[in-house]
Design brief:
4 helices; three-stranded antiparallel beta sheet; alpha+beta; elongated
Length: 137
Amino acid sequence: MSEQEILEGNTLIAEFEGLPFVPYRLNRSIDKKFNTYKECQKYIEKNKLEGFIPELWWNQKSGQYDHNFQQLMRAVEKITKTKYDDGDNAYLRTFGMLNKDGNVMVRINRCPLFEAPTLIEATWLAVVDWCRTAYLR
């Protein structure tokens, strides 16, 4: 995965969690919070804030979900408390099983199966896909 794909995926998860974004530049942030990365970016562009970028309010870029299981599992827990339109809950259908090649598999019900060399990567891929397809539809 490219750094851009990781940034986009982490941003989706942060938005799903409802974490605010702020304009940030070199240890300086503006005390104005936005619900999405795009809203924050528009504010920066409109106000010509040179050198500022949208970051999560705790200055973690767009989260560390791709390599921090504690952060990622908060999103997984929130997913499992989410109901689909028909009232059925979202849940982990496959979690941590190995395929014939030794890759780890993770699947959230009603979503595709994801396979990766590590459990955190497979889980991250499944959560990002769920945020794109189930949450943002």
